[in-house]
Amino acid sequence: MKGHPWLSFVILVVVCVVGSAGAVTPVVKSTCMISWDPSGDHPGITEYRITVWMVNGQRTPQKTTHVVKAPTTQVSCKEVGANKIGHWQATVQACLNDGTCSEASKPLSFKVAEK
Asked: Model pTM greater than 0.85?
């Protein structure tokens, strides 16, 4: 990120997986949790922005962003809107109190199979 290279750390996004560990896209329940590793965080980070969207073949998916105040590093799939059966993706950004944010993490794909 321009001006803030320390914000360009990699955020690991993890969901609680149900079923086969060898699956390419994790299959989860809507009660899953999305969490990230804050180990590279700068002490000035005040919030994280979690963006989720359903992958349904649309050219421009409808994305929603949920703000989580630091130091919290996990949020439920339901809380961020990933509560319907289907294929989802999520990214996380770390933000400073002045609104400067890291680039979004690589998208994590997961499939909500049941409620």
From this structure: no
Query: Residue 19 — φ and ψ, nearest 5°?
Result: 100, -150
- Catalogue the E-assigned strands of the chain: 14-15, 27-29, 33-35, 45-54, 63-69, 74-76, 86-96, 108-114
The β-bridge relationship of strands 108-114 and 27-29 is: parallel
* Residues in the chain, total: 115
pLDDT of residue 1: 40
SS3 102: coil
Least confidently predicted of 5-14, 26-35, 51-60? 5-14
Which candidate, 66, 79, 70, 63, places its Cα nearest to that of 7? Answer: 70
CA distance 30 to 79: 10
Distance of alpha carbon 102 from alpha carbon 7, whole angstroms? 5
What whole-number distance in Å separates Cα of residue 110 and Cα of residue 85?
11
